[in-house]
Structures are given as structure tokens and as C-alpha cells.
Amino acid sequence: MGETYLKALGLHADWGATAEALQHAKQMAVDPPDPYSHISVYNDPSGACVGLIDTRDGFSTETFTVHGAGGHTVEAWQVMPGTAEINLLDDDGELITRFLAFVDDPHMYPWYPLKAVAGLARYSDYQLGAIAVDVNVYDSVEAWKAEQEPLNDAGMRIGPTFIASPWLFALYAGDATAEEASPVSMFKAVVKHVNVVTNRLTGVQWYRALADCGFECALALPMDTTPAPRVGSVVDGKAFLTGTTGFWGSAVQ
């Protein structure tokens, strides 16, 4: 786990310290259906959520999500427990984009091998988020544009609201296995609103923003982000995309 990734949610930069704190925190759990042996989450009032997943065949993982930006319609299935392919749909049910995302409610999606994908889980009022991994922040769209280079000789450029999921491309191309696939994405977004919040588990502050990356998402940034994000800032770099059905309820204050 990257240090920035953990700090972006107000968690301890050292995963071992965060794992120790979680042992003493109140968690929510479900009676796990097959193939799971354990599913639980720590749902922090700041909007950070940590999921712990075990399967009956010995697979174990942690997932991280940021809650707060709902209203989306999606169809989804899991590549691996805790990592899902999200198909984001418009109001007419047409595909807008698809990407890999961490999910904190693995029992709410089917899990398939890539060549055996069948029915998908469909949800409305779905929550999408992003957690900064390695990003730069620009004070404005104009400041961001001033540092962009054309992508080709024809002068093609990508705008300030964009995501792309390279591991999804690699998965479908046969260049990565399901076990290797990651929800880290190219991420460009314009901040629409931002608050400073405090993770109750650690007492560490972080920025929870509402951002437009082509769709609205809740965006987590570490408190030492420079320059500090504000309305109109552009966030550009790599982020983990996240999703949740809202199964665990909202602890956001």
C-alpha cells in the first residue's frame, strides 16, 4: 500500500499501525455467503471505509473506499473479491465508461473468471470515489492547461476531467491476470467542493472533496497536499477508484 494512499484517508502511513488500530475499532460484518469466510468494514464518520475480506479458499485482502458521491447507475461484477469492473450508465442505460474499482461490499456482486462473465449486478444511487495515490494539484484549469503538452503531432489533448483504467485494458488484452489487476487509474478532475475532515480512528485530518472526473466522485487527498485543493482546482495523476452500493449505510458526518 502506498503511503500517500493511506494518508489520503487519514489513516496511518504505516499499514501495520492502521491494522493494529482497526483491531480495537467497532466494525460491521455480515454472515458471509459462499465463497467468503469473512466480510467486515470499518466505516469512519469522515467518509473513509476500510474493508476486510477472506474467502474459504484462503484468499485475503483489504479494500479502501471513500463514501459520499451517490446517484450513479452502474452494472458491475468482480474480477477478484474487493475489485470490481464498474460499468457506469447514463439516464438511458447507455454505457458512459468502465473501470476497475475497490468495493467494500463484495457480497453484492458476482465474481467471475474473465471468460465466463454472465449476469451483472445493477444498482442505482451508487457511490463512486477516488483516493489519491500520486497526484499534482493546480490552482485552476488555466494553470493546469499551461503545463499540458499535446499527445501527438496533431495537437490532441486530454481535458481536465478524465479517467482511464490501464489494468482493465491489460486484463482484457491478456497482459495481466485477475490477481494482478489493480484499480489504480489515470485521473484528472476539477474540484467542485472541499472540506477538511478528521478520521476518528487515527485523529488524522484529510481533504474530502467532491470532484468532476467525467462523473462526480468523492475524492480523498492527504492533508499535506500542496497547493491545498480548493473549488476550481485540478487534480491530475494516479488515483484508486472506489465504489459502494451503500450496503453498510452512511457514517458520513
Structural notes for this entry:
The chain is mainly beta. It has one domain (3-244). It is built from four helices and 13 strands. The strands form two sheets. Strands 5, 6, 7, 8, 9, 10, 11, 12 and 13 form a nine-stranded mixed beta sheet that branches. A four-stranded antiparallel beta sheet has the order 1-2-3-4, with no helix packed on it. Strand 2 (36-43) and strand 3 form a beta hairpin. It is globular and about 50 Å long. The chain starts with a helix and ends in a 9-residue tail after the last strand. The relative contact order is 0.22.
Determine Rg (CA atoms, Å).
18 Å
CA(first)-CA(last) distance:
27 Å
Number of domains: 1
Q: Largest beta sheet, briefly? A: 9 strands, mixed
Which range best describes the helical content: under 10%, 10-25%, 25-40%, 40-55%, 55-70% or over 70%? 10-25%
Beta-strand percent range: 35-45%
Listing every helix as H and every strand as E from the N terminus to the C terminus, the arrangement reads HHEEEEEEEEHEHEEEE
Q: What class, by secondary structure content?
A: mainly beta
Shape: globular
SS element count, helices: 4
Mean pLDDT: 94
Tally of strands: 13
Low-confidence stretches at least 5 residues in length (pLDDT < 50)? none
